[in-house]
Amino acid sequence: MEAADILCDSLFLWQKNRKECADTLLKLVQELENVPQGSNIFQVLRASISAATSTCPTSTLKKASVSSITFNKATELIKEDEKVGTNIQKQLRDLKVRCGGAPLGAHADELDCEVTSRLMWALAKKRKTPVPLDFLRGFNRATFFRHMTPGGLAPAEASDYICKALGLDRSPEITSSLKVSAKEMMKNIGRIGIKAAKAGSGVLGATGLGISLYDLIGECEKMVKGNWITEASKFLQDSSRQILEGQQKLKEQLDAMHEIIQKLVQMKSLIKALGGYSLSMNENEQRIMNYIMGTCTDNTVLSWLQTVTHQIEFVNLLRFLLENLDPIFDDLTNPSGVDIDIVIVAHGSIVAEFMYAGGLVPTPNIRDTILYSPWNCSIDSNTAFAIAQGFIRVTNREFYNNSNIAHCEPNPLPDHWNSMRGSLHNIPGILLAPVTPEERAWDFFQQFWENRGMEVEDRVIIPYVVPQNMVNAFRQIPLYMFIFVTSFILMRYNKTATVHLAACLGREGSPLRPVEWRTQYAYTSDGTVMTVNMENRNMNTVFFRALSSLFDRIRR
Questions:
Q1: Domain map of the chain by residue range?
Q2: Is the peptide bond before 412 cis (omega within 30 degrees of 0)?
């Protein structure tokens, strides 16, 4: 069995044992309250501890008219509780060690993410809810552990988004469980079997998870020895209640986890069942949109999705990217979590409105987004081909201007590409427009899709090309929406990707913003084109002809 499966079984065993312990303590309280006043109750309680080592009822128990069966059951349950608690500690350590050997990336919190994902997977299997482990990893990375990216979701806020998105019961119990379903739940599990939380302490009252039943009996003995009979009885009653509260708290957390899993499986089925492109939305597609808008924390994305028209465009973009990514992800043989490269090829332009660069790195599934040309600069087919194939180098770029401007190269020209993860400044908004059927490039890209073998291994090329007879379903769409939808699909496969853009970044009528452009990266004069020296490389004829017809409409 997997380490997480063993731990999951132990957690359910611990819950069952704790409830029996609490019930037995209440029965013990009732019997103690019936002990004759002259009895040596301290000896009775002492007998309750020693009874586990003896099969014969003691004379003290008989004298006090207290059932030896109750004491024997209590002590056996206490012994079992100590054993299960010790095992849980060992199993949790073992699970963390095993997860530490997985390809977890550079983030420190990814260990907690992996532990949580495997425990959810074990819970799903135990409750016979089939779900891929990679899918749970992707979900946890995109929600509970979203704080690992700049501007991401704070862990305490995860429940609000998940409840809204999945339509979960927003009762205090479920909401509380969701808030601690990840890191906090691991802390609670870590308290099980630890004796440091003595009975009557603040920790006991707060959680009821770390209470040692041996310590509980010991505390009660002290009270009885001081002849505080009423206090001892109340103490046992309170302890029983707190044990049940701790057991119930863990049960609610596991139930909330399973409810999330069930809703995710339903959502996955809805996405898989998406039909063809459409200019309207049905009920299931609206449920997908509710999920998207419920879990999204990016105000820029949410603002764009406010209109029905944009929501329809979003669902069609989801279909489009699924058609491009699903077959490739299904065929990829690289291990889950290994970074792949996705290249978006499209008509492009920049607008006057600025946005934060982190909007192009929305979740941990997107490692980075790389832009290649300076602002207000076009690219030619050589550059697009080099970006798509992954051999472009900063030392190999050149600039020319169709207006015969003598000095068109940016000064200074950065010695690196424009990384969005590394950017500290706002960037111009980028719009991507599709290739439509009336363009010459459209036929070439159709041929490109028929020959997917042209792509470099683990490098996915996605030309933004309108499907036949669906021009009205695809318009100019912000780059951040492309990346947001891509990150959503990556979540389904637990893939991470670096996104590369092969598109022109000319301003096309937007106002000049040279100060801001230079602050963020660099800019060029109107009409400037970036090219690269192909160094006599062999180029695929169909793909290069498609790029040439798209980017080389104006030649030097």
A1: 3-267, 298-551
A2: yes
